[in-house]
Design goal:
273 residues, Rossmann fold, alpha/beta, 3-stranded antiparallel sheet, single chain, SIR2/SIRT2 'Small Domain', 7-stranded parallel sheet
Length: 273
């Protein structure tokens, strides 16, 4: 059963959440205060991230992806947790589910976490499945592409940890050091499925809220993709209160008990304070 969301005040939302067991779902809007742009916030341009099917199509697509990602990650790796990340670590929810790949929740000290889409700081070989460090790959790319970063220093940052760039034809992409296979960030691309064990753990946490009188808090996600929306739908079906904090409409608004169109950092700091 769904109802129209109640556009609540800080006090209303905090009163609903105070003292309850919480599961928290976060999206790109939580990291904007750390300098990482989001996908669908007010004023955000239309973006078309590379799909998995495009990436595996051949060397040209992989060259285009890695050239852009090399520049973007060189910036993203220096981002720091903001007040929202630190507040959530202090709140210590039963589980924090994040759609973000930036690793900032981990850096802030969150204990119980599922990174639904993986972490951009990890790399996987599509042939031998060996995993490795993005730092090491970044160093290899820098060595193979001298001057590339300086030439494109003005490229605009994008939410996926990459940049807007068309001039990628001369970028040299290293192969897996173990088998020579194709390397990919160990994140879930559009067109890939979130690993089943991650999904099951998140469902179990949301379902436990029905027995404990808990609530689901969504912070900084438009819930446009099903990877996050499904947990809101499950909570609503079970009668678990859902509070959504996001600037702009979300695909889950009809399931919200309360909806706040405010900044995530300020609200979470208030809730944790």
């Amino acid at each position: 059963m769904t109802t129209a969301p109640v556009h609540a005040s800080y006090d209303d939302a905090c009163a609903l959440l105070d003292g309850r067991p919480l599961v928290v779902l976060t999206g790109a809007g939580l990291s904007t205060d750390s300098g990482i742009p989001d996908y669908r916030g007010p004023g955000a341009p239309v973006r078309a991230p590379m799909t998995y099917q495009e990436f595996v199509r051949g060397p040209e697509a992989q060259q285009r992806y890695w050239a852009r990602s090399h520049l973007g990650w060189g910036r993203m790796r220096h981002a720091s947790p903001n007040d929202g990340h630190r507040a959530l670590a202090a709140l210590d929810p039963e589980l924090l589910i994040t759609q973000n790949v930036d690793g900032l929740h981990e850096a802030a000290g969150t204990r119980r976490l599922v990174a639904l889409h993986g972490r951009i700081a990890d790399v996987v070989c599509l042939t031998c499945r060996a995993t490795s460090s993005r730092v090491a790959l970044h160093d290899r790319m820098t060595e193979l592409n001298p001057g590339f970063t300086a030439r494109h220093a003005g490229a605009e940052a994008r939410p996926d940890g990459d940049v807007e760039l068309d001039d990628t034809a001369d970028f040299v992409v290293p192969a897996c050091e173990d088998c020579g296979g194709v390397l990919k960030p160990d994140v879930v691309f559009f067109g890939e499925n979130v690993p089943a064990l991650r999904v099951e753990r998140c469902y179990a946490a949301v379902e436990s809220l029905a027995a404990t009188g808990g609530a689901l808090l969504v912070a900084g996600s438009s819930l446009t993709v099903m990877s996050g929306l499904r947990f809101v739908r499950r909570a609503s079906k079970l009668g678990v209160p859902v509070v959504i904090v996001n600037r702009g409409a979300t695909r889950g608004d009809e399931h919200a008990t309360h909806k706040l169109e405010v900044g995530c950092s300020e609200f979470l700091a208030t809730l944790a304070g």
